[in-house]
Amino acid sequence: QVRLVESGGGLVQPGGALRLSCAASGFTFNRYSMNWYRQAPGKERELVATVTLAGGSTNYAVSVKGRFTISRDNAKNTVYLQMNSLKPEDTAVYYCNSRVWGRDYWGQGTQVTVSS
What we know:
By secondary structure, the protein is mostly beta strands. It is about 0% helix and about 55% strand. The chain contains no helices and 11 strands. The chain has strands at about 5, 10, 20-25, 35-40, 45-50, 60, 70-75, 80-85, 90-100, 105, 110-115. Strand 9 (about 90-100) and strand 10 (about 105) form a beta hairpin.
């Protein structure tokens, strides 16, 4: 059974940093790309960042490029999202995602709130 469990969210002041983690199980982690999405209140879920199988390639939404870094540790079956220089508009629930065997799997989400 595929399972994705996010952690690391919280309340942070503008300009601060957080690191999100997503622990994966139930599939061969190093064979799949991993994604972070976010959904703010009243908005559609958006793709934030993607990392390929061995971490050799990453892609970012324009809104987070240069501030966020996605990485993975295949030995720990974990993907990370380092978020720096956070802005109030980064406030959202952040979800870990992967398409495994042709189906999208999601974690339960972790709340990130950027506010003074």
